[in-house]
Q: What sequence folds into this?
């Protein structure tokens, strides 16, 4: 298929947010990510360039670890001045240097590169194509298509993920008298592993990851000897040529679900995943076979042995119609090799001491259409300074907000082989329902402009856990719901406190007398803020209202809270406490509604009952009969928890 | 809610939240019916009746399937005379003076009993089981004797069974029952009992069991497996680990290897063993064994090493499976066969080496080829 000529080239931008920096600093560079499997100039995502050194060594190192194989850097976007083409040329040159560095001096790469320039003054983006490295002239792109593809439908309809986990224990020996040779011996041992990947007695087993109901295709066995390794080190960018097509070749789609249930959106979470396992076939005919022999080889001088743990874990993206064998040899194996070298680089300086505990995690960060891979050093835990810096740097690179944890190990993709049943399943001990507001009837105020809570929470209410707090515990339950939100968003790992523990906290900080513990006394917004501060380090804003009638006026402020902070709000007024999950208001009419989660519910964990009974639902400030939801003659205090600025 | 523990053949059931326990005695899954290969067994019977020997003891070769609760007997092997030329089994006449001697001299008296050289039969079993292929085992003993002699010899027979099972247990640790076949010469009939192998075997350990003749050998399926391995074991300096001989190290290695084999995955005729169904295709089947890529570790970090023991080679292994048995049994049998083969080879070589040489320590670069 001949690529389209540049005169008619179209740049398709799939990523939701192209421009990451709002600051418009001149010279700021972003890499444009695409895939060799997509039509040319399709921009799937964009990463900030963090290390702007001339040789881009650090950048290429980072990107090689971060970007799954199947995706590649196809261009650059730079903040420049009014001379768009000149700026874009800089971006193009940087991209070509980066690609060379990433492929570590591979074949002469003369692919077409996309260069884009943002005018710092006007904010206009201009796209260009660089046909070849030699030509300094860029071709302007006439047509740019921005596709609203929030979930990555295009990627996951046409492609799937291949996941390969390979725990390796690698021993190597070096003379006890010259430890400096250890590095050389380790490198040789690593090279031997890489050679082993392509031996004829290696077997690659491909199976579907999701053992969903119904017929599961049988695992596919690919034998190393059938790969013909070494015959032609095919460029990863090329799909198999026509003559390579064998009539009964198995493609990745064989192991993908043919039709998804209607409810499942095509996204990275729901993508088809194929698990690849590497095994050694000890029954493969070996040229040198003889009766078992045990032979002892004494060392010439005393040696030492070191065993290095290398837990490889790679994720690659492949189009569904790609033959499975190609996917393994051109994507999975190079990914394993690259990761092996990355791990080796990290371990080498610490070879003779305590080895860093390296763990690989994959994430689906919001706003990025494809997964990313990270290598975390967890010797001292996640909150250690170095790790915090690593995460901050990743947040910067991916354009993620710096005030919420999105790349913690708890956020990582779960790629284990099991059933895909989540949410609302009854785990042992935990009976709370999650996110009960999802699917409820709309507020009736306006279409699609409600501002609601971001993220997940658990619904706590009266009489749960066989604890009778009916009549006095509503604010406690609201606090429990709020703390569950911070837990589920990974800001904290403490368990949701009981009524007694909440009371004990208030006594500890001196707000209440010791007799408070075990009592049935109410608490209000102030007390909640104390507990959140003491147990979670979370600070809160408090809004006071002399009368319930003042609440509807503050709808806009509340909406802003949900849009920026997105945390649940506790409303305390009169003798009642509620949890507020969202607001919906109409600028024009002044009509507004509040999404209330009522902790006074005394029934069981029955979602239908909860919704139908109005225990979670939209309450209009003034209903159709003219009655107000908020009482005019009572004070109201609102507690607005603030996200801690942490990653 | 309940924890169930099995110790030997006693099941104990304990409620998770309470302290009390109750013991449940469950009947061991015992073989309920045995089929013997008609051709081989009738020819054995013919030989015995023509030979007119008063008694004979020997080994029963076959397999017991706990999955199918059935036993299969392939052949009988008589235990030869011992080194002194004495038969392994003979009849003892214990005359009871109070009774009148019986009229017919050709018939043995009511109070005859058997004398069996249990140790010799056990040694026979040990040597034979080394030579058997996967899935084929020594499953018990048979005895050719009169009804009365048999009835009077229960203790002796139990002793013999115990001796045999103890002798072969190291090749089959899961052995928990054995067969006792009695070929009676008057009236002519075959009688089979299963024997529970406990620490003590008494007459109560014997249970009757169905026995019939049929076609067994022809319906066996053959599985074969080529197995190549290549290990490098570091040998640590004398100071850091206790001194070990070459053979001790190799035996340890074989134990490690056996564990590794047990957890290996298998492919049959190119397909992963997916669900455990019986194999219904004809002909010989090929089993391939798959192991984790590089997780077999025989090196312990940061120790001083004086040399490497290189242990490698190939083994061809066979196993036989009855048509109704699940294929996982063939895989288990192949693995057991490989382990037994290596152990037997090591045993034989060590036996010979110990006769010829003094025990060698690690540090001598002596090559043992076996």
A:
């Amino acid at each position: 298929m001949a690529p389209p000529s540049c005169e008619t080239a179209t740049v398709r931008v799939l990523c939701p947010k192209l421009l990451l920096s709002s600051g418009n600093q001149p010279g700021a560079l972003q890499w444009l990510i695409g895939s060799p499997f997509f039509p040319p100039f399709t921009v799937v995502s964009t990463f900030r360039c963090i290390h702007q050194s001339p040789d881009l060594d650090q950048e290429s190192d980072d990107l090689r670890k971060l970007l799954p194989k199947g995706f590649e850097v196809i261009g650059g976007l730079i903040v420049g001045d009014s001379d768009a083409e000149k700026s874009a040329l800089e971006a193009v040159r940087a991209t070509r240097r980066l690609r060379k560095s990433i492929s570590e001096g591979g074949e002469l790469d003369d692919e077409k590169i996309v260069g884009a320039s943002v005018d710092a003054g006007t904010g206009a983006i201009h796209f260009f194509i660089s046909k070849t490295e030699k030509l300094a002239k860029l071709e302007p792109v006439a047509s740019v298509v921005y596709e609203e593809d929030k979930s990555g439908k295009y990627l996951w309809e046409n492609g799937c993920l291949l996941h390969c986990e390979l725990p390796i224990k690698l021993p190597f020996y070096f003379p006890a008298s010259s430890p400096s040779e250890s590095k050389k011996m380790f490198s040789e041992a690593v090279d031997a592993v890489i050679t082993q990947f392509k031996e004829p007695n290696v077997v690659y087993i491909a199976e579907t990851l999701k053992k969903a109901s119904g017929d599961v295709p049988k695992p596919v066995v690919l034998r190393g000897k059938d790969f013909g390794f070494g015959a032609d080190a095919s460029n990863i960018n090329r799909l198999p040529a026509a003559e390579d097509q064998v009539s009964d070749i198995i493609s990745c789609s064989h192991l993908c679900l043919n039709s998804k249930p209607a409810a499942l959106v095509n996204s990275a979470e729901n993508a088809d995943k194929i698990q690849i396992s590497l095994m050694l076939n000890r029954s493969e005919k070996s040229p040198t076979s003889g009766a078992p022999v045990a032979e002892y080889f004494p060392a010439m001088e005393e040696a030492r042995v070191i065993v290095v743990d290398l837990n490889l874990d790679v994720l690659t993206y492949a189009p569904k119609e790609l033959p499975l064998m190609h996917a393994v040899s051109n994507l999975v194996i190079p990914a394993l090799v690259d990761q092996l070298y990355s791990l080796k680089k990290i371990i080498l300086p610490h070879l003779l001491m305590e080895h860093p505990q390296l763990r690989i995690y994959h994430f689906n960060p919001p706003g990025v259409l494809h997964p990313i891979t990270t290598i975390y050093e967890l010797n001292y835990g996640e909150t250690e300074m170095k790790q915090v810096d690593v995460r901050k740097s990743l947040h910067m690179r991916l354009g993620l907000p710096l005030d919420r944890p999105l790349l913690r190990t708890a956020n990582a993709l779960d790629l284990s082989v099991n059933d895909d049943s989540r949410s609302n399943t009854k785990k042992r001990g935990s009976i709370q329902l999650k996110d009960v507001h999802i699917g409820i009837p709309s507020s009736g105020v306006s279409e699609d402009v409600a501002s609601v809570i971001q993220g997940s929470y658990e619904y706590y209410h009266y009489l749960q856990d066989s604890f009778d707090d009916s009549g006095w515990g509503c604010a406690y339950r609201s606090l429990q719901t709020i703390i569950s939100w911070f837990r589920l968003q990974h800001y904290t790992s403490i368990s949701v406190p009981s009524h007694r523990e909440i009371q004990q906290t208030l006594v500890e900080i001196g707000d209440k007398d010791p007799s408070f513990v075990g009592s049935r006394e109410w608490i209000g917004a102030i007390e909640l803020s104390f507990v959140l501060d003491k147990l979670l380090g979370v600070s809160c804003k408090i809004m006071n209202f002399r009368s319930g009638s003042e609440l509807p006026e503050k709808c806009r402020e509340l909406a802003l809270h949900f849009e920026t902070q997105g945390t649940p709000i506790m409303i305390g007024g009169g003798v009642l406490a509620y949890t507020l999950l969202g607001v919906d208001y109409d600028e024009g009419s002044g009509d507004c509604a509040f999404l209330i989660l009522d902790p006074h519910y005394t029934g069981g964990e029955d979602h239908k009952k909860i919704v139908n009974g109005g225990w979670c639902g939209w309450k209009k400030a003034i209903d159709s009969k003219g009655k107000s939801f908020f009482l005019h003659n009572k004070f109201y205090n609102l507690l607005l928890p603030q996200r801690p600025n942490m990653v | 809610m309940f924890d169930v523990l099995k110790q030997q053949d006693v099941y104990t059931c304990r409620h998770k939240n309470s302290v009390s326990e109750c013991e449940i005695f469950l009947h061991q899954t015992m073989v309920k019916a045995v089929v013997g290969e008609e051709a081989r067994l009738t020819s054995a019977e013919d030989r015995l009746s023509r030979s007119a020997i008063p008694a004979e003891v020997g080994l029963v070769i076959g397999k017991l399937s706990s999955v199918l609760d059935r036993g299969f007997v392939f052949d009988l092997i008589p235990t030869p005379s011992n080194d002194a030329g004495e038969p392994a089994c003979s009849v003892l006449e214990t005359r009871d003076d109070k009774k009148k001697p019986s009229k017919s001299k050709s018939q043995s008296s009511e109070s005859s009993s058997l004398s069996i050289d249990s140790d010799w039969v056990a040694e026979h079993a040990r040597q034979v089981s080394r030579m058997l292929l996967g899935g084929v085992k020594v499953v018990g003993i048979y005895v050719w004797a009169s009804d009365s002699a048999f009835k009077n010899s229960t203790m002796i027979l139990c002793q013999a069974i115990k001796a045999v099972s103890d002798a072969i247990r190291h090749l089959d640790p899961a052995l928990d029952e054995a067969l006792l076949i009695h070929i009676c010469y008057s009236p002519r009939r075959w009688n089979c009992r299963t024997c529970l192998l406990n620490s003590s075997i008494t007459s109560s350990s014997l249970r009757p069991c169905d026995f019939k003749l049929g076609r067994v050998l022809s319906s066996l399926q053959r599985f074969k497996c080529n197995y190549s391995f290549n290990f490098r074991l570091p040998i640590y300096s004398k100071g850091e680990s206790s001194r070990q001989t070459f053979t001790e190290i190799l035996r340890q290695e074989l134990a490690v290897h056996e564990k590794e084999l047990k957890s290996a995955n298998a492919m049959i005729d190119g397909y992963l063993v997916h669900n455990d169904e019986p194999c219904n295709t004809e002909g010989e089947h090929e089993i391939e064994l798959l192991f984790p890529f590089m997780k077999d570790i025989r090196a312990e970090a940061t120790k001083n090493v004086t040399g490497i023991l290189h242990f490698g080679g190939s083994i061809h292994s066979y196993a036989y499976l009855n048509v109704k048995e699940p294929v996982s049994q063939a895989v288990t049998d192949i693995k057991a066969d490989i382990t037994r083969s290596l152990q037997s080879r090591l045993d034989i070589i060590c036996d010979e080496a110990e006769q010829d040489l003094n025990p060698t320590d690690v540090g001598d670069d002596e090559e043992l080829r076996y």
In short: Chain B touches chain A through 56 residues (CB under 8 Å). Chain B has a mean pLDDT of 80.
